[in-house]
């Protein structure tokens, strides 16, 4: 009876195990100022290390503090797509993903575009694509002169002809 009970209890443990499956993969939902943020995790997509930041002040994932760090990093090295904040909080790795989309739905990176947002016409430049969401990240300058990023649906964008921007 004991053997039967022992076998019945152990069968589910062995029957549901899947060899070779790694359940420690991470995905991020954080996308701040056009940069993917990985806190205590690594991206699963292939990437290249392009730099690091040693001095920063962050004790938790506060969006305002992260924005300050991103702006500081972009002054040193503007060519990165993501930041990996390590567990020890001693440095942040700047990374660049391979295989990112350079064009989508008739638009290309660097295209000058315009769109309407809350009744205002905004003009900017495409700096990133999110094809899976059918969106683009647009860099523009607000009325106060601050540089901003905005995620916009591709269907809302209109190209600005080259002659109109000169």
Please provide a brief summary of the model.
The chain has 3 helices and 12 strands. It is an alpha+beta fold.
What does this molecule look like?
The protein is globular. Helices cover 19% and strands 37% of the residues. It has 166 residues and is of the alpha+beta class. Residues 4-19 have low confidence and may be disordered. It contains 3 helices and 12 strands; from the N terminus they run αβββαβββββββββα. The longest helix has 14 residues, at 2-15. The strands form 3 sheets. The protein has a 5-stranded mixed sheet. The protein starts with a helix and ends with a helix. The chain has helices at residues 2-15, 63-76, 162-165; strands at 31-32, 35-39, 47-53, 82-85, 92-97, 103-104, 107-108, 112-117, 120-130, 135-141, 147-153, 158-159.
List the main descriptive attributes of the protein structure presented here:
37% strand, 166 residues, 19% helix, five-stranded mixed β-sheet
Q: Layout of helices and strands, plus pairs?
A:
Layout: H1 2-15, E1 31-32, E2 35-39, E3 47-53, H2 63-76, E4 82-85, E5 92-97, E6 103-104, E7 107-108, E8 112-117, E9 120-130, E10 135-141, E11 147-153, E12 158-159, H3 162-165
CA-atom Rg in angstroms:
22 Å
How much helicity do the residues have? Answer: 10-25%
**Percent of residues in beta strands:** 35-45%
The major β-sheet equals: 5 strands, mixed
């Amino acid at each position: 009876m004991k053997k039967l009970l022992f076998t019945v209890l152990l069968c589910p443990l062995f029957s549901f195990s899947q060899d070779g499956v790694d359940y420690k993969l991470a995905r991020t939902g954080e996308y701040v100022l056009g940069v993917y943020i990985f806190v205590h995790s690594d991206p699963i997509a292939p990437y290249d290390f392009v730099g690091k930041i040693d001095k920063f002040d962050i004790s938790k994932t506060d969006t305002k503090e992260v924005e300050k760090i991103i702006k500081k990093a972009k002054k040193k090295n503007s060519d990165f797509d993501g930041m990996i904040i390590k567990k020890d909080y001693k440095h942040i790795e700047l990374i660049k993903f391979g295989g990112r989309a350079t064009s989508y739905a008739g638009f290309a990176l660097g295209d000058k575009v315009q769109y309407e947002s809350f009744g205002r016409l905004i003009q900017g430049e495409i700096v990133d694509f999110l094809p899976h969401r059918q969106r683009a990240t647009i860099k523009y300058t607000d009325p106060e002169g601050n540089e901003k990023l905005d995620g916009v649906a591709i269907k809302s964008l209109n190209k600005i002809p080259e002659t109109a921007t000169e």
